Amino acid sequence: MSKEKRMSTVFTGMSKHNFYLKDHISNFVLKEHRVPLNPYMLFGYYMGDAIERDFVRKGSHGLLMTADELWIFGIIADGIVTEIELAMKYNKPIHFYTMDETGLDFKEIVNMDDLKFEREVLPKLPYHDYRKRIEDYLKLHRENSSGIEIERKWLLTKVPEDLCLLSAGRVEQLYFSGDTDIRIRKVEADGSTLCSIDVKGPGDLERKEIKKNITIDEYNQMKEIIGKKPIEKQYYRYDVGLKNVLEVSVVDPGTKDSFIYAEIEFDSQKEAEAYTLPIPGTLDITYTPEYKMKNVWKRSRL
Question: What is the pTM of this model?
Fold first, then answer.
């Protein structure tokens, strides 16, 4: 007998107004080769109010915490915002879908400006632009991946002031040793915290990279095992007219060893080598070993 591969589980978030489409939503998830964890299929409509609704809500949140992903269907209500925030807290991939009234036509939303909220939801949220909060989370949250990283780096004298700033945040990262490029990383931006463990192969401009998201608890446990002060970065992300953004990092700000560098990822080596950074007075450090973060770690922490 062949060994069956485990299917990923998806918590399905939907407004109570779409309760009648619960079967169609579960069907859609199954056809996408995922197992639907649909609270309306499990609990019905608040279990017919046989118990307090808060118990049902807690049960739904427990179900979400066990799921691999969160998929949101249709208009976003108060309860769905809570589910989104919970998924962000535990670093879960989130996808959004529109659907017609028949529940037969589903389309994934790629532009967060197309998200629709119930009228009373947004004014109550403590965020100036909740769509932007979601968009920033999705940009930062790269699902478990492996591939080739093609990246150029430059040494800067200061943080740019005349570029289009998209977002800013804080990073801390630690390495398991000074001889390998295996690190854990925590990124904080706009109220979200994302953690990962990354493995990078040898190379300068182009190298293999494997990335896996981990929970905050897992990050903290690994941080305690390593037992060293993290490398800290204050980072800024800019739009420079490319598919990918320019990211500028101030490494260990406020210390005597602090420095500022910029980096951009490219789709090809040819594109990377042809690019000219729109910042004067910079030094290309792509091939300079002393500015690799694992060497900064080895020099300053070990």
Answer: 0.62
